[in-house]
Amino acid sequence: MRDILSAPNVSDFLQNMLAGDLNIVTGLLWLVLATVVSMIGGAIGGMILAGKDIGYSFSAMLGALFAPAGAIPAILLGLVILTLWTNF
């Protein structure tokens, strides 16, 4: 594990993440993390809204599938605005 963390590529990536620099790699990582969080939130929301009617597992699956449909465009727009904002 020490060898992985001390590799130059990983070290540069972690320093970019800690400094808040937005490049293509950190942007993709934030996109993936935000998509996973939106899927978890959609599953919870689906279970709360329709759990008793159509079953908890089916409503969680539908919520997890439909939540990123609204979240991914908002995430991408936010990353673009942050990138433009840091450049000016």
List keywords for this structure.
mainly alpha, 90% helix, elongated
Produce a short descriptive summary.
Helix content is 90%, strand content 0%. It has 88 residues and is mainly α.
Could you tell me the mean pLDDT? 85
User: How many β-strand runs?
Assistant: 0
| Overall spatial form | elongated
Radius of gyration: 18 Å
The succession of helices and strands, N to C, reads HHHH
Distance from N terminus to C terminus (CA atoms, Å) equals 39 Å
Helix content: over 70%
How much beta, percentage-wise? under 5%
Low-confidence stretches: none
Q: How many helix segments?
A: 4
Report the sheet with the most strands, covering strand number, pairing sense and barrel closure: none
Q: Which structural category do the helix and sheet elements fall into?
A: mainly alpha
